[in-house]
């Protein structure tokens, strides 16, 4: 991931109302290898799990099979309830204006 991609991701999460804690978490993720189980282990509440999924959904290309597979792995690792990933995907694709 290059600097332009990181800047774009930061801009996207700002649009979702990210706070400093979420920005710090994103920076840690930039620097770490992708591991859905490790990412999910950092969710300390259902709200945090949803936010982690939302941020991930906002930055991946769901038309890319590898990125979509990772997002599906993350949803499973976060133990999101049935239907929740799809609802969160809709929120990312259709932000409130």
UniProtKB/TrEMBL annotation:
Pfam families per the UniProt record, alphabetical: DUF533 (PF04391)
InterPro entries from the UniProt entry: TerB-like, YebE
Designated name of the protein: Uncharacterized protein DUF533
Gene source species: Chromatocurvus halotolerans
């Amino acid at each position: 991931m290059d600097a332009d991609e990181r800047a774009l991701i930061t801009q996207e999460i700002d649009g979702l109302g990210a706070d400093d804690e979420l920005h710090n978490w994103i920076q840690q993720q930039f620097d770490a290898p992708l591991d859905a189980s490790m990412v999910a282990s950092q969710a300390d509440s259902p709200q945090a799990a949803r936010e982690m999924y939302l941020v991930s959904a906002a930055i991946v290309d769901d038309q890319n099979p590898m990125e979509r597979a990772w997002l599906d792995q993350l949803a499973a690792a976060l133990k999101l309830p049935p239907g929740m990933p799809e609802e969160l995907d809709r929120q990312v694709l259709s932000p409130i204006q």
